[in-house]
Design a protein that fits this description.
- The protein has about 240 residues and is an alpha/beta fold.
- It has one domain: Rossmann fold (3-Layer(aba) Sandwich).
- It is about 30% helix and about 20% strand.
- The protein has 7 helices and 10 strands.
- It is globular.
- The two termini are about 20 Å apart.
- It binds fructose -6-phosphate.
- The site of fructose -6-phosphate (F6R) has 14 residues, from loops.
Amino acid sequence: MKFITVENYETLSRKAAAIIAAEVIAKPDCVLGLATGSSPVGTYKNLSEWCKNGDLDFSCVSSINLDEYTGLDGSNDQSYRYFMNNNLFDHININKDKTFVPNGKATDIKAECEAYDNRIKEMGIDIQLLGIGVDGHIGFNEPDEFFTKETHQVTLDPSTIEANARFFESIDDVPKTAVTMGMGGIMSAKKVLLIANGQNKKDILEKAFYGPIDPKVPASILQLHPDVTVIFSEN
Ligand code: F6R
């Protein structure tokens, strides 16, 4: 595992974008595993700029996102599909038909999860971008008694609902459930890039990467992955 500490969010975002850009340049038809939340916003901004400048070409790239709230469709501005369009896909020359986000509005969530896992298996993820929750969640794999391998529906932890309330008008508007890629999908990525910023992420990073591997700290499973880069900025 490579643990890179940087001085601020701008540097974190530039470095993370550079790692993803290197992947796109080396393998123009690569599959990017993508995340939402506040951590990757700067990374996506850099990738968008570099694409606009002509330094990056996403025309053959596909993507698979980690998660989506249940009950929100892509036109809802709180949905992760909307976030991805707004923060990245609308600014780069990716073919949107090759960008995948779980369908939180699926009538049969179980079938949606199975289909998502089949897609992950078929496409294969070259590099998975991750953030980390203050409770150690990756994707929406919340602390539990065991690690869940498959894509599945989860009930969000109260700390996750509280953390995500900043994106909604009120905490009551935050969906209580979500669909998330499971640990099998995340661990199947050839490379993992986890980005975290802020003092409130320091303790959980310490536990996840230097403590025991424990489903109560979901990100700790990444200690078993052969190619993980963590970029952390306290500011
Ligand atoms: C988002 C996701 C979550 C976030 C995590 C950190 O797709 O999967 O695991 O990465 O909640 O969120 P931020 O970056 O907002 O601190």
